[in-house]
């Protein structure tokens, strides 16, 4: 069994000023995505420019925060917030959901594209490789906060998390950081290194995230107030990942078939 390392939740404390590790993980994710986006904007087939990337990052942050919060309220604790809607704004009490944040970013991509003469697939394909680093830092933040831990395990890799009942558990936050963060970044970044049929980079991200999250959910403890929500073994996270997997596969099959008859990739880049 591994020992869970103690983390001071405050990264820096100067008098009453406290800078928490969890909040800084969001900053690290945003800054990493922004820097990678400026680098990616140099590719000749992208319509996104470094200046546009500077503008888009604000849209993305609003989409992540607003969508993540609303997604948690709708998907994971609807009854509570239905009767206390004012508490939706109590973000300091915690509660963010990736799938809600994803919807918020997708809306930001659509609005940004309309404003800047880019199609939704063009914006989505550009942004997709920049998301996994943010997921990586977010899961590291969950680990530091000792939250969203895994199910019980007798394996040597089990950890006893504070407030988790004294039983060794899967460090599922680290599994997600490795799969949804590092591995998904490598796959999507490599795939996007040359032009692909429109929408396919974004579709690959949805497919990859959906598959990795679905797998990790078998080691992650379901939300206590929800438990298993389908077939007595599927968590809410798995249910929300199924549409991502199905859409990712279906769209990529359709896009490659369409590319063979109605090419969208310029001949000089094929």
Summarize the structure.
With about 270 residues, the chain is mainly alpha-helical. Helices cover about 60% and strands about 5% of the residues.
Descriptive notes:
The chain has one domain (10-269). The protein has 270 residues and is mostly helical. The chain is 58% helix and 3% strand. Strands 1-2 form a two-stranded antiparallel ribbon. Helix 5 packs across helix 8. The protein has 9 helices and 2 strands. The relative contact order is 0.11.
What is the count of structural domains? 1
Shape: globular
Secondary structure category = mainly alpha
Instruction: Determine the fraction of residues in helical runs and give it as a percent range.
Output: 55-70%
Which terms summarize this structure?
single chain, 270 residues, mainly alpha, two-stranded antiparallel ribbon, 9 helices, 58% helix, 3% strand, globular, Lgt, transmembrane helix, EC 2.5.1.145, membrane, lipoprotein
What is the secondary structure topology, with strand pairs?
Elements: E1 10-14, E2 17-20, H1 21-40, H2 50-75, H3 78-83, H4 98-116, H5 120-127, H6 131-144, H7 172-191, H8 200-216, H9 236-261
Antiparallel strand pairs: 1-2
């Amino acid at each position: 069994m591994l020992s869970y390392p103690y983390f001071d939740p405050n990264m820096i404390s100067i008098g009453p000023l406290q800078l928490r590790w969890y909040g800084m993980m969001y900053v690290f994710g945003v800054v990493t995505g922004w820097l990678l986006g400026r680098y990616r904007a140099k590719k000749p087939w992208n319509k996104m420019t470094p200046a546009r990337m500077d503008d888009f990052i604000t849209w993305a942050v609003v989409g992540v925060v607003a969508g993540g919060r609303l997604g948690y309220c709708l998907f994971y604790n609807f009854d509570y917030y239905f009767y206390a809607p004012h508490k939706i704004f109590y973000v300091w009490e915690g509660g963010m959901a990736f799938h809600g944040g994803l919807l918020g970013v997708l809306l930001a991509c659509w609005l940004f594209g309309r404003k800047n003469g880019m199609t939704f697939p063009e914006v989505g394909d550009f942004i997709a490789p920049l998301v996994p680093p943010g997921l990586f830092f977010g899961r590291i933040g969950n680990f530091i906060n000792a939250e969203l831990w895994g199910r019980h395990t007798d394996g040597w890799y089990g950890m006893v998390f504070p407030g988790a009942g004294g039983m060794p558990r899967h460090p599922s936050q680290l599994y997600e950081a490795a799969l949804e963060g590092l591995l998904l970044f490598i796959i999507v970044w490599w795939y996007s290194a040359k032009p692909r049929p429109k929408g396919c980079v974004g579709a690959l991200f949805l497919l990859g995230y959906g598959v990795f999250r679905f797998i990790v959910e078998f080691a992650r403890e379901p939300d206590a107030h929800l438990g298993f929500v389908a077939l007595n073994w599927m968590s809410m996270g798995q249910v929300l990942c199924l549409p991502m997997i199905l859409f990712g596969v279906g769209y990529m099959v359709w896009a490659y078939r369409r590319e063979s008859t109605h090419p969208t990739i310029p001949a000089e880049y094929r």
